[in-house]
């Protein structure tokens, strides 16, 4: 009979015994205890037990068996999974054997007849430990060895990274038939590991030797097992895999494994998020749950990129209900369907409405009485807002004011506004309106509703992000357009941003601007090159990169804080507080009414001057100033036409 059929037969027997696993383990261990006792006597008397010691034999094996069964149950050794036995488990086996032999020895002294040979205590302990540890190791080896059958149906794989993640992946591949890989070896950049064996698998060398290793070993796939690698390290690995002409996939972080439920479904293609090197976010989940659980939470802009992810993350903490407010009916319809499927027990209430409609806001808030409001509704596209000044002010400033006032009148305890790094020394209308909104809600602190802002940069894959645009251009084999070779932006993933926003909302006492740790700014040119590499193409050869010029309102570099803002740490390493100094001189309500009046009059010149007066370091773009200067000077301000598209 072929070897693999024998192994499969053992596996089937094991599966049948697994139904009565605990009793099977107890039975096996009892057999070992009896075997150890008899073996101790046979070894002590050279396999010829004298008649005068046969009574000692029966007394000894009975007392030892009872004592060891009790001790092994106390140590929990009748409930373990032997296929996963580890060094700590073997230490527990040693301690249990020592305790069992000692307890059995005490019983023998009390109940057995005199003349019991003392050397038997040590021999019994030694034989019993070797047998109980050996059977566990044998079970693990059987399961691991049985995973090597039918290699012809598996892909020849190399694991990049011989650390804890790589070793865990190797064990999982051997034990999980869903992972159809035959691991030929490891590659690791630590020279100390080269040539060593890990579970009978060799570490061939470092990443520089990857092309030659792939060719020599006939590798089909490289599995990158470095969940904590930096973006630069991941980019270097990606280029090496491209040079070797091999398929590559990455192992998820432990956070992703927990979310997906198993490692097999988590192995995936390398994505642009991996090249950023963003570490998983660790949340104070007990604090968040205390804040959110059994409470009604409202989200404006709930159908957008950030708003919808906020809904998903909030739902994890079992709120009484989520009120999703948005004016985009189609997108709201889809997030409603998604939430009902993903969280069937959640009261998810989609509400169509515009934040510029104060009456509708008050109506929704009175109906549901939310405790916390996450305000994510805003116009965010920088060049587009340069041509739609009135709409940007009406939505981002006046709309935010409407939501903030409605929140106070409805008794909402916490108001959390999503802001932007473009609010720092703004050069765009979008940035200026977000900064104005920060200043205005800060002025509302009166001991009632707590108003805070959370400021961060770009998020990957959001509506209007460069990533979808680059992917479309690459898919169509068109040149990828980058505005400037030195254009840099802060990036984070949408889930990371949403999680940190929720965490920051538990810290606010009112008036703070929370700034999320965005890491190092990323060159857009590098981002475009990496996306081309991820598509299996070569930047500059298969896909060209062209520079289109800086767009209206854009800066080469973004900032996260004003010079006059005092930075304070929080208990979370990825969240900082910038103390805001508030509005200058005139009251917030007067500012809002002035902006509202200028929007109604379509007075673009005065509205820009008002924003400039409100935000001292606002520097309007040349694109906007040229359009203002082109307006007919002989017309009164109120009759001047708006710029095209406003």
List the helices and strands and how they pair.
Blueprint: H1 3-18, H2 21-44, H3 54-74, H4 87-111, H5 119-146, E1 155-160, H6 164-175, E2 181-187, E3 197-198, E4 201-205, H7 210-217, E5 221-224, H8 231-244, E6 247-250, H9 254-260, H10 263-266, E7 268-269, H11 272-276, H12 285-292, E8 296-300, H13 305-315, E9 321-326, H14 329-342, E10 348-352, H15 358-368, E11 372-375, H16 382-386, H17 389-409, E12 414-418, H18 429-442, E13 450-455, E14 458-460, H19 466-475, E15 480-482, E16 488-489, E17 491-493, H20 494-505, E18 512-516, E19 522-523, H21 524-534, E20 545-547, E21 566-569, E22 575-579, H22 588-601, H23 604-614, H24 622-629
Question: DSSP strand (E) fraction?
Answer: 5-15%
Number of domains: 3
Task: Tell me the radius of gyration.
Answer: 34 Å
Under the CATH scheme, which architecture of the largest domain would be assigned?
3-Layer(aba) Sandwich
Q: How many helices in DSSP terms? A: 24
Could you characterize the architecture of this molecule?
This protein has 646 residues and is α/β, with parallel strands linked by helices. It has three domains: 3-146, no CATH class; 151-270, Rossmann fold (3-Layer(aba) Sandwich); 285-579, NAD(P)-binding Rossmann-like Domain (Rossmann fold, 3-Layer(aba) Sandwich). Helices cover 49% and strands 14% of the residues. The chain is built from 24 helices and 22 strands. The strands form five sheets. A nine-stranded mixed beta sheet has the order 10-9-8-11-12-13-18-22-21, sandwiched between helices. Strands 3-4-2-1-5-6-7 form a seven-stranded mixed beta sheet, sandwiched between helices. A two-stranded parallel sheet has the order 14-17. Helix 18 links the parallel strand 12 and strand 13 (450-455). Helix 4 (87-111) runs antiparallel to helix 5 and helix 13 packs across helix 20. The longest helix has 28 residues, at 119-146. The chain is elongated. It starts with a helix and ends in a 17-residue tail after the last helix. Mean pLDDT is 84; it is low at 634-646.
């Amino acid at each position: 009979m072929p070897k693999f059929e024998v192994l499969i037969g053992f596996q089937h027997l094991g599966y049948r015994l697994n139904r009565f696993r605990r009793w099977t383990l107890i039975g096996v261990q009892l057999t070992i205890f009896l075997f150890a006792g008899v073996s101790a006597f046979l070894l002590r008397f050279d396999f010829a037990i004298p008649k005068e010691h046969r009574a000692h034999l029966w007394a000894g094996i009975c007392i030892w068996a009872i004592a060891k069964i009790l001790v092994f149950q106390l140590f929990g050794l009748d409930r373990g999974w032997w296929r996963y036995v580890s060094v700590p488990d073997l230490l527990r086996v040693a301690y249990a054997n020592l305790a069992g032999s000692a307890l059995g020895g005490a019983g023998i002294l009390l109940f057995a007849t005199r003349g019991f040979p003392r050397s038997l205590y040590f021999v019994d302990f030694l034989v019993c430990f070797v047998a109980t540890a050996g059977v566990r190791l044998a079970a693990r080896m059987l399961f691991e060895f049985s995973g090597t059958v039918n290699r012809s149906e598996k892909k020849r794989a190399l694991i990049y990274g011989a650390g804890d993640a790589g070793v865990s992946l190797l064990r999982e591949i051997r034990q999980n038939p869903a992972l159809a890989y035959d691991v030929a070896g490891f590659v690791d950049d630590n020279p100390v590991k080269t040539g060593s064996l890990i579970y009978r698998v060799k570490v061939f060398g470092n990443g520089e030797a990857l092309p030659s290793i792939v060719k020599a070993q006939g590798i089909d796939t490289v599995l990158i097992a470095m969940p904590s690698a930096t973006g630069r390290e991941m980019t270097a690995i990606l280029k090496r895999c491209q040079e070797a002409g091999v398929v590559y996939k990455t192992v998820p972080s432990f956070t992703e494994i927990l979310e997906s439920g198993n490692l097999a479904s988590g192995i995936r293609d390398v994505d642009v998020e991996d090249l950023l090197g963003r570490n998983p976010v660790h949340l104070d989940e007990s604090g968040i749950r205390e804040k959110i659980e059994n409470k009604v939470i409202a989200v404006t802009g709930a159908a957008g990129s950030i708003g919808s992810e906020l809904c998903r993350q909030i739902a994890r903490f079992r709120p009484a209900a989520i009120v999703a407010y948005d004016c985009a009916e189609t997108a709201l319809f889809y997030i409603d369907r998604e939430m009902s499927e993903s969280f069937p027990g959640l009261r998810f209430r989609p509400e169509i409405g515009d934040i510029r409609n104060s009456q509708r806001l008050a109506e929704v808030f009175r109906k549901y009485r939310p405790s916390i409001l996450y305000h994510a509704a805003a116009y965010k596209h920088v060049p587009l807002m340069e041509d739609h000044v009135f709409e940007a002010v009406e939505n981002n400033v006046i709309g935010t004011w409407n939501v903030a006032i409605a929140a106070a009148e409805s008794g909402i305890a916490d108001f959390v506004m999503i802001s932007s790094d473009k609010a720092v020394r703004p050069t765009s209308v979008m940035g200026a309106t977000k900064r104005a909104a920060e200043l205005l809600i800060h002025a509302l602190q009166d001991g009632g509703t707590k108003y805070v802002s959370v400021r961060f940069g770009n998020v990957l894959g959001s509506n209007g992000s460069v990533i979808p645009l680059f992917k479309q251009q690459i898919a169509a084999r068109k040149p990828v357009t980058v505005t400037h070779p030195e254009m840099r932006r802060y990036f984070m993933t949408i889930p990371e941003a949403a999680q940190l926003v929720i965490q920051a909302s538990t810290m606010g006492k009112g008036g703070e601007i929370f700034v999320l740790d965005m890491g190092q700014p990323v060159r857009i040119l590098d981002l475009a090159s990496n996306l081309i590499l991820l598509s299996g193409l070569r930047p500059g050869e298969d896909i060209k990169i062209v520079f289109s010029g800086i767009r209206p309102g854009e800066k080469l570099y973004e900032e996260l804080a004003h010079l006059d803002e005092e930075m304070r740490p929080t208990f979370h390493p990825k969240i900082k507080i910038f103390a805001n100094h508030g509005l200058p001189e005139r009251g917030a309500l007067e500012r809002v009414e002035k902006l509202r009046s200028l929007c109604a009059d379509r007075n673009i010149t005065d509205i820009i001057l008002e924003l400039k007066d409100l935000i001292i370091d606002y520097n309007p773009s040349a694109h906007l100033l040229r359009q203002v200067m082109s307006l007919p000077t002989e017309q009164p301000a109120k009759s001047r036409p708006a710029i095209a598209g406003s």
